[in-house]
Amino acid sequence: MDLQGARAIVTGGASGIGAASVAQLRAAGARVVSLDLADAPEADGSVRVDVGDEEAVVSGVREAVNQLDGLDVAVLSAGVGGSAALVDMTTVEWDRVMNVNLRGAFVSLRETARAISETGGGGAIVAITSISGFLSERRMAHYAVSKAGLGQLVRSAARELGAHGIRVNAVAPGTTDTPMFAATDRLAGYREQVAKRAALGRLGTASEVAQVVVALCRLDWVTGQIVAADGGVSLHSPIDPQESIEGAEG
Q1: pLDDT for 154-201, tens place per residue?
Q2: Range 199-204, long-range pairs (CB < 8 A, 24+ positions)
Q3: pTM here?
């Protein structure tokens, strides 16, 4: 898919991976409208939207499509995090994360898919999931479940929307240096610990994840896939014998 002149919506486009996706789509020649609670300086236009509010998403997508005079690409990047032990987690906290990360992503996907189909000519939708969607981490059950569900939504949507010429894929970031990840700075040594566990030995950047987003927008024969963009963090195994060998040698 040639992104020169493409019309794109990015949810969560005001910060983090969403903002980086806005910048890289525009660099590729696309016109981009952001849907977020805040304005996105890098975008061609911004619509203030709470992705957890269905009516706001429906009207926001409609407004963005009117600004762009059609739609070819959607990047679903809006998301929230959270931390709580299962036995202490309230349903309010569970619903807060699910409402944005899964329900909000569903509504955003539904509305942008309708707009791409109505525009004609096919297009691409890329969702931002997480490696937490296929790994088990303590104190993040609601986040992990929301991202696992989003991954299955992407696969189901790819099956259904292929008939309309719409490709649906996802990027699963790992430890990426974004405002959401900055919340972990209260945990002493956490940043250094997770960077060490990455095969590439560092945290990723929002720009590096956005490169994968743009690549999936361009790839015409790829759909229903979840690409881990995590620097190899998800390759880490707690039963790796090399760790014991290195510990003995140390």
Answers
A1: 999 999 999 999 999 999 999 898 887 877 878 788 888 888 889 999
A2: 199/231, 199/232, 199/233, 199/235, 199/236, 200/231, 200/232, 201/231, 202/231, 203/175, 203/176, 203/177, 203/231, 204/173, 204/174, 204/175, 204/176, 204/177, 204/229, 204/230, 204/231
A3: 0.94
User: Average model confidence (pLDDT) for the chain?
Assistant: 95
Domain ranges, ordered by start, for the chain: 7-249
At residue 244, the pLDDT reads 67
Mean pLDDT of 205-229: 98
Residue 143 designated active-site: yes
Q: Which of 84, 95, 42 is nearest to 210 (CA)?
A: 42
Among the options 143, 149, 197, 217, which is catalytic?
Answer: 143
CATH T-level fold of 7-249: Rossmann fold (3.40.50)
